[in-house]
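Weekly modeling sync, notes
Attendees: AB, CL, MP (scribe)

Item 1: holo prediction request
CL wants a bound-state model with phenylalanine before deciding which constructs to order. AB pointed out that an apo prediction alone won't tell us much about the pocket. Agreed to run with the ligand included and paste results into these notes for async review.

Input as submitted:
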Amino acid sequence: MSLRGAYGLAAADYSVSQNWGAHTGAEHALFRRLFERQSKLVSRYACPEWIAAIAGLDAGAGIPKFDQVSAKLRKATGWEIVAVPGLIPDEAFFTHLANRRFPVTVWLRKPEEFDYIVEPDVFHDFFGHVPLLFDPDYAGHLHEYGKGGLKAMRLDAVKMLARLYWYTIEFGLIKTPGGVRAYGAGLISSGGELAYCVADPAPRRLDFDLERALRTDYLIDRYQSTYFVIDSFAQLMRDTAPDFTPIYDKLRAMPSLAP
Ligand code: PHE
Ligand code: FE
């Protein structure tokens, strides 16, 4: 049985068991093909923190065992993976992050979705997000983000905070000695946008600006026309540390910005 969208089997916190043994050989082979395609790109376009972490994860052999990776993650930064049936409600998502649990979708895309999938699957979640959880600054930032999400729910500001996630955790760029590189998971797991975001002259690459990111709408069905570039994960943590309450109040009174 496919676990895609099998919310009926989930616990109250939307977690499910990974049931790794149920994956078919064809699914492991598809994961390997996705892994191999991205592996040709990451050395040129992904950030050094991501590259340093992927090697220790043995993810090239097929869909990884979440328990094994969680054991390594717990030692490195106190994070662990929880398996989920797909996208989950905001409150459950923020609560997991606030407890250093990263929700990873259990199911893999179909072969016909090789190049493009509208919703996150295990390849996007694992390959894109999990390696960076080994970086202490990134890991600390995402923990704070989760707590900030629960707070934003009380302040009716989730839409603004979700834009920040989009322009950092999903589609963020970072400066490195070798030039700008991708750290956003939507970029690192993308067959086309990973090279585009770093090397194509068309998109804007703006220095990270918290208020601008919180105000800027985004489109989920095309390459981004604007990327925000951070100096370091420490900068991201610093810039997002202040209390957002007055910032939300100020930005609520202003129009949103086009993507
Ligand atoms: N500092 C934010 C607040 O007070 C919380 C937050 C931290 C949001 C990190 C995003 C990232 O709401
Ligand atoms: Fe994602």
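Recorded for review: Strands lie at 80-84, 101-105, 173-176, 179-182, 204-207, 226-230.
Action items: CL to compare against the apo run; MP to circulate these notes.
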